[in-house]
Amino acid sequence: MNRKGQVTIFIIVAVVLISLVAGYFLLKDKLFVPEVPSNIEPVYIDFLTCLENEVLVGVDVLETQAGYIYLPDFEAGSEYMPFGSQLNFLGNPVPYWYYISGNNIQKEQVPSKNDMENDLEKFIEEKIRRCKFDSYYDEGFEISQGITKGEETSLIKTHNLVVDSKLGALYNSAKKIYSKEQEELFLEEYAVDILRLYAPVDGVELTCSPMVWSAEKIFDNLKEAIEENTLTLKSRNGDFKLKQEDEYFVLDLGVNENVRFINSRNWSNGFEVAPSEGSILISKPVGNQAGLGILGFCYVPYHFVYNVRYPVLVQISDEEEIFQFPMAVVLQGNNPREALDATASELSAPELCEYKNNFVKVSVYDSNLNPVEAEISYECFGSSCNIGKTSEGKLIEEFPQCVNGYIQTRAEGYEDFKYLFSTTEEGSVDIILNKIYSINLNLKLDGVNYNNDAIISFISDKSSRTIVYPQQKEIELSEGQYEVQVAIYKNSSLKLESTSSRQCIEIPQSGVGGLVGVTEEKCFEIEIPSQIISNVLIGGGKQNYYLLESELKNSNLVEIDADSLSTPTSIEELQNNYIIFENKNLDITFK
Known about the structure:
This protein is of the alpha+beta class and 591 residues long. It has four domains: 24-72 and 109-165; 169-336, no CATH class; 351-432, Immunoglobulin-like, CATH 2.60.40; 437-590, no CATH class. Strands 14, 15, 18, 19 and 20 form a five-stranded antiparallel sheet that branches. Strands 28, 29, 32, 37 and 38 form a five-stranded mixed sheet that branches. It has a four-stranded antiparallel sheet with strand order 23-22-25-26, with no helix packed on it. A hairpin with a 2-residue loop joins β7 and β8.
């Protein structure tokens, strides 16, 4: 061996486990075997101290990195599923125990105790060779596979080191919490409550004007609420009583250690909502359309469907030791994802993505046939596989076989595009994307600039854009056929008096008669309370318009001129305005 102080000896590390490897060096004076001469003993003490320090470092890394020292291969997330396979926590990668991959595949990577033991064994084997003994060389020691000074030599083949740690107990509690989440989805149940408390999901409001929300503002509110509510969760330790409002945040996890649940609004997350008009959610009133005058009032029903995805880091602590692991929390369509059996195995990919065996050439261009860099994926009967990214507008890659699947193309600054293409044989496809242009918008009413409330929509079969005017005066559009809609509103104090009506329906008769189709009349009294209509329709219309890219490229402004309607003073006049609105045209000019 060279003089860098490396020691090559057969090392057997006996580690006392509280279920696993661990912690603090105990009773050094009892660890030395009698064969170590007294003048060589200081070198051996330093060697065991070095070994102890490396064990403690390895244990700390295991606790910090969810039971891993050597991280699994990193898998990036996607815009659809933002997690990736690791959570960046204070600059350190922590492998998820449960996550959903970028192509929507559920995966688990829970290490076993044997996995952790192997990681620690490999770590100690690498690190122990770096123990330094430079100061002893000057004293005449020779250190190789043994220790020699003068005429005395000691060769120690077995080294017993006793350390103490809570790693095993903390890991067992982590597994218990993870299994409970996979079986009960308690974090998703909290997420559903947060969603319904802090975002419009479904309901009915008595009003005759559309209800409008900003999706971005809703998502910001949800991020803040998720962070604060997650940090409030705690584990029940011992028999104690809390206020009723505090009990909601207490979990019976069946562990003795302290447990923290952490989320940050700055971590990778994903929020989607439908239906939406771009970044705007709109619900239109019922009761002011033609033929509905019998209702005598207006109401706005709304129902929005959300997909929510965010990480939660679980920390289990006992005194100074903390074991942590992250999990993905996922809501699909306002509901928790399906529960999984908690195992330490990775779920297999769907067959579609596993068998890619037909080469397809994809070329992506803009309208001027310039190449466009784009992300390419392939969708077949609800499953989607990421294929790759074009280089200089082209991609030649293997696709899974499918009849009537869709090549999906996404590029920054362009409209997403789906192309129907069967991949049962090799082939090629050319895709032309429509570029998105941002353009200013000016609204006129009867030829005069208008700066009060209006909702302006550009609706096509591929995409829709809606802005709330005048708070928003810029819109993003691409070439295509649109139905342009403008609805102009004015503050109102129109009062609808309370009404009472009787409604009767035919229901199956009770008893034997109902079995043979006999019915009877049942009547109900319907009470409609009085209401104030705060906004009424006073202008607007609709217009079909084919928008050319040349108009978008060469224009800085789109000007829309709408006709006014009379200000209604009764429910009948309000309903009449909506009838006229359907047949009103718009004057659209690009400048």
